[in-house]
Specification:
The protein is α/β, with parallel strands linked by helices. It contains 37 helices and 31 strands. The strands form nine sheets. The chain has a six-stranded mixed sheet with strand order 10-8-9-6-5-16. Helix 13 packs across helix 14. The longest helix has 25 residues. It is globular and about 120 Å long. The protein binds one RNA strand through strand 17, helix 17, strand 20, helix 22 and helix 25.
RNA sequence: GCGGGAGUCGCCCAGCUUGGUCAACGGCGUAAGACUGAGGCUCUUAUCCCUUAGGGGUUCGUGGGUUCAAAUCCCACCUCCCGCACCA
């Protein structure tokens, strides 16, 4: 009678779930309970995991959430596994973008202001405060922190810091002095894209239209002009130098004569300026008009001969030196220009010239004829080009250049570089002419790039640039050793790490602007953001003991930032120096110093570092290198977990698509848990996951469904286990299933197969519950029992790292008064795993499916169903087959037959019905390895038992009250079997007769 | 150019390491039905083709090969994506 009443309650129950309220409620409780704060607990095993801290120049959007959520799930899982988990967070203020953003606010940049107003919904008065860089950082810092809390991240906030805190700067100074002592910091020069106005390097973020400045290196070939002058021409193809026939000069522009490193160069004014930025000593002496040079000749120093100067309007004063060397055999432009000039009698008369040029072929390629026409002539002809303004010239040039680059070989008769491939010849001749002083190099921007301030960018050769020398061979060896002993998840990405370590060379580590720590030995430089973020995980272990400028109260038991010195860090992080001296130096007690040192020793090394895939070639690689250099091997990180990025509704997130959704907006609208699950469930870890709000809604309603089920079955959770519980087939089965789910889900999480884990919890568990429900219902029994309780408790615990708010709430509804967040992770109970149970229920499911198939095809409305289980001999044969397949890992039918015709036990049967043997082999093969092993272990499986047990279910599933079901063994000689169906019975596949 | 990936049944995405569990998980979408005052949510069923006895046929970028057996292993080809530095 109890059952009836409860069943009706299910329908009418009207449950509600307010995601926002639930979020707020548990955030408060967690914070009051201080359950995510962790300290040294010598007798508990620790787990220290970190994620790359955020750069606070914008709010977090949905795409940022994936890595942090994954790390949080990891932290929560380990916590439930009994570890003392440390999951801290900091904020990376270092770098230039925030500074340049504030510049843009100062200059009233509308694009940026609109982004702030419309996408991020920031009030105007706040935006105007952004003229000060730190205000920007502070604002987004708080914004991001709020978002992290709203997402439910289980962070120990007491250890929070920013990278421009005094104490942090002291730590970074220590790091750098340390690296320098080890000889890993070097100085050198380096070309960069540069804004002459801002006096700063420019990168993609700093340019109008976000264009990445691309650098190219020209070779300048110096031609002598009238003894005292040099005319340098810029080329990307110095290997064609032996094919030069003339120079091109633009007659319509002015050139200058400039003293360049004590030589008198004739170049354009633009070129003179560019050379200055490349640190050449340039002073302009006078001007000279292009037309004044036409018709004269220069001396080719390499080949010791004179070549003429011809006019060409295509010569761009902005490009190179504004003077071009002409190689008509290999440049379609040069060739066509010569043709055109030859026809232009006006010009020829004007300068009193004749064009008497024969193109000189220097490179051979199979694509072009080796005799007769030069390659350029050939291609110009085959493209039917008629003049130098023909757009097809560009195409022809690309084709020729590309062919010659890949397949070209210098002709044997060419001096110095004969018979060399184009690539080799290029390097060889470059070296040669530079060494002889008849050539040099010049960097230039490949594309016209403008800084956000509006100024055209140039290439600047930075001198005295500081580098971290990741090219150091011994250091590389240590880095290899580190990753060799580190777990990398997923394993597929390991190769990529090895490659990166291999490629890395010197890397600039300081800039002249931006926020950050000054280079300790050279105050003009500020340590760059990818250099001050590589060992800070160690800093978390002591940051809560440092009294910072932001935290003046609560200063007991803390060390003042001002008193931090290298000796302090040497002692705490490396165990060097005398304890008493260091304590005295740092003006703290020995006890406090010990405490700090012990906390470092307790928590370090990092057990797991989480990051997005994009950080593999930079941050994560540097993280590895720097740990290898600074820390002893026992403090090297143990694991890296890398995840893919997030697409929004199938598209890359970008401002131009307008699909950047701030995380906090999404939480407000859908609740944190559905968003967390969506990020994690839509793809396995290394794939890009496709975030969509349809999916969020789907998952949210899935959670709600669970919630509703738990609310309606609330009374179940007060059941106390007692011996009167029923132990029917389906009870043993569901209990066994629960253990399996625990095992499988736990192992999936350990391997970071998060999608799979969620799949189990959210969907597969539902199937089990449904089946259990069906079975009980058919027997007219209630599912409200101890098994249902166990089922839901397990499910909620498994789900709790993923959907923490939801699970806390449900946990409470279940009548618990503790936090599920710090409860125990479910352990599978081996004694509850029952192999036969799984086969029982499988058999019942299969028989229903088979009957349904038959009725569907035959369109019979069954009145009577006969089910025949296999004869004993078939079961014996099945065992034998299973045994052979498992032990020999072959399924060759012929082989088995040969063996069985000599086996007295089964030979008669096998000879009589070989076809059935074949079918049985296929039956076995179509089972999973797991099932096969299970069946090997079961010694006698009586199919009659589960089938009898399920008669009520068969009747309700087939849906006919008048139905009569009989179950008989094939061996039974008195059975009713009018169509002789029983002989088709196979083990785990009974024969069926329907009428 | 160098390096790293990816192509699966409308879409997204599992499976490939260790060949048979695979007509191939799951979600979304679509269709029908149940529930509802009507919707939404939820539930059931279907979703490559054929089939009056639980079956058969053709599929996993393309073309070959190995094998009793290939989405999975080998070879070739086609297409697409990402990173290459002073930038977080």
């Amino acid at each position: 009678m109890k059952k009836m009443a409860e069943n009706s309650a299910e329908k009418t129950s009207n449950v509600e779930l307010d995601w926002a309220k639930v979020g707020e409620k548990w955030r408060k409780k967690w914070s009051e309970g201080r359950i995510f704060e962790s300290e040294t607990q010598p007798h508990t095993k620790k787990y220290f995991l970190t994620v790359a801290y955020p750069y606070p120049n914008s709010p977090q959007h949905v795409g940022h959430g994936r890595t942090y959520t994954l790390a949080d799930v990891h932290a929560r899982y380990k916590r439930m596994k009994g570890y003392n988990v440390l999951f801290p967070m900091g904020f990376h203020y270092t770098g230039t973008p925030i500074v340049s953003m504030s510049q843009r606010i100062k200059t009233n940049d509308l694009e940026l202001i609109e982004t702030f107003e419309q996408i991020y919904k920031i009030p105007d008065e706040v935006i105007s405060s952004f003229k000060e860089p730190k205000k920007i950082a502070n604002f987004f810092h708080e914004e991001i922190k709020q978002g992290m809390n709203e997402m439910g991240y289980s962070i120990d906030w007491r250890r929070e810091f920013t990278t421009i805190d005094t104490a942090y700067s002291k730590f970074i100074s220590w790091q750098f002095r340390n690296l320098r002592k080890k000889g890993l910091i070097v100085q050198g020069s380096h070309p960069v894209g540069w804004c002459p106005q801002d006096q700063n390097p420019v990168s993609q973020h700093d340019t109008i239209g976000d264009i990445e400045p691309e650098l190219i290196e020209y070779v300048l070939v110096k031609f002598k002009f009238e003894e005292q002058y040099i005319i340098p021409t810029a080329t990307l193809r110095p290997e064609t130098i032996f094919g030069v026939t003339n120079l091109w000069i633009n007659p319509n522009i002015k050139y200058v004569i400039a003293l360049v490193n004590n030589e008198k160069w004739i170049i354009t004014k633009d070129a003179a300026k560019k050379l200055e930025f490349l640190n050449l000593n340039v002073s302009i002496i006078s001007e000279i008009h292009g037309s004044d040079l036409i018709g004269k000749s220069v001396f080719d120093q390499l080949r010791k001969r004179r070549i003429p100067i011809f006019p060409a309007s295509f010569v761009d004063p902005n490009n190179g030196t504004g003077i071009v060397m002409s190689v008509p055999a290999h440049s379609p432009y040069d060739y066509q220009a010569l043709i055109d000039l030859r026809k232009d009698s006006v010009t020829l008369t004007k300068y009193d010239m004749t064009v008497n040029i024969v193109p000189i072929t220097v490179i051979h390629t199979d694509t072009f004829p080796s005799i007769g026409l030069s390659p350029a002539e050939f291609i110009v002809t085959s493209y039917s080009i008629t003049n130098q303004n023909d757009p097809k010239l560009e195409e022809a040039t690309n084709k020729l250049y590309s062919d010659e680059f890949h397949n070209g070989v210098l002709l044997p008769e060419i001096d110095i570089i004969g018979n060399l491939s184009v690539l080799k010849a290029r390097d060889t001749i470059r070296e040669k002419i530079i060494n002889q002083g008849i050539g040099t190099t010049m960097y230039e921007l490949k594309n016209a790039v403008k800084c956000r301030c509006g100024t055209s960018c140039v290439v600047k050769l930075l001198t005295n640039q500081w580098f971290i020398n990741y090219g150091d061979e011994n250091w590389k060896k240590l880095a290899y050793e580190l990753i060799k002993n580190m777990e990398i998840l997923p394993e597929e990405i390991r190769q990529e790490f090895a490659n990166v370590i291999d490629w890395l060379k010197e890397r600039a580590c300081a800039r002249k602007s931006g926020l950050g720590t000054k280079l300790p030995w050279d105050n003009e430089w500020i340590i760059e953001s990818l250099a001050d973020s590589v060992i800070y995980m160690a800093y978390y272990t002591l940051s809560n003991y440092i009294r910072n400028n932001i935290d003046l109260q609560n200063s007991k038991d803390k060390v003042s930032a001002d008193n931090l010195s290298d000796s302090f860090f040497d002692y705490v992080l490396l165990g060097k120096n005398d304890r008493d001296l260091v304590a005295k130096d740092s003006k703290i007690s020995v006890q406090l110093l010990d405490k700090i040192r012990n906390e470092f020793l307790y928590f370090y090394p990092v057990d797991s570092r989480h990051s997005g895939r994009d950080l593999v070639p930079n941050h994560l690689a540097f993280f590895i290198f720097n740990h290898a250099a600074i820390f002893t091997k026992d403090k090297w990180p143990k694991q890296i977990v890398v995840n893919g990025s997030v697409l929004m509704e199938g598209k890359k997130m970008s401002k131009s698509f307008g699909n950047i959704i701030p995380l906090r907006h999404a939480i407000e609208e859908y609740g944190a848990d559905p968003i967390r699950l969506t990020m994690l469930a839509s793809a396995e870890i290394l794939q890009d996951s496709d975030f969509s709000f349809d999916l969020v809604k789907g998952i949210r309603s899935k959670l709600f469904e669970i919630y509703r089920a738990i609310c309606t079955h609330k009374s179940v959770f007060t059941i106390i286990h007692n011996s009167t519980e029923c132990n029917e087939l389906e009870d043993l089965w569901i209990s066994s299933r629960i253990q399996h789910i625990i095992l499988e889900t736990t192992s999936a999480i350990e391997k970071f197969r998060i999608r799979e884990a969620l799949h189990n919890i959210l969907y597969l568990m539902d199937n089990d519950l449904q089946w259990y429900h069906k079975r009980k219902l058919a027997k007219n029994k209630s599912i409200r029992n101890i098994y249902l309780k166990e089922f839901f408790e397990t499910r909620i615990k498994l789900l709790s790292p993923f959907a923490p708010f939801f699970c806390e709430e449900v946990w409470e509804i279940m009548g618990n008064h503790s936090f599920i967040s710090i409860d125990q992770w479910p352990e599978a109970d081996d004694s509850k795993i029952r192999l036969k149970s799984e086969d029982n229920e499988r058999l019942i499911q299969d028989i229903i499916l088979d009957i349904q198939k038959i009725t569907k095809v035959t369109k019979i409305v069954p009145k009577r169903i006969m089910i025949y289980t296999s004869s004993t001999i078939k079961c014996i044969l099945y065992k034998k087959l299973l045994d052979r397949i498992q032990s020999q890992s072959t399924a060759n039918f012929g082989l088995f037959m040969k063996e069985f015709v000599n086996d007295s036990e089964v030979k008669d049967f096998v000879k009589h019905d070989p076809d059935l043997v074949k079918k049985m082999i296929n039956d076995i093969l179509s089972e999973s390895l797991e099932v096969r092993q299970r069946r090997m272990k079961i010694d006698s499986f009586n199919e009659l038992i589960p089938l009898q047990d399920a008669i009520s279910l068969l009747i309700s599933e087939i849906g006919n009250d008048q139905l009569e079901v009989s179950i008989l063994c094939e061996d039974n000689s008195n059975k009713y079997d009018p169509k002789q169906k029983s002989k088709f019975a196979r083990p785990y596949k009974p024969a069926i007769y329907i009428e």
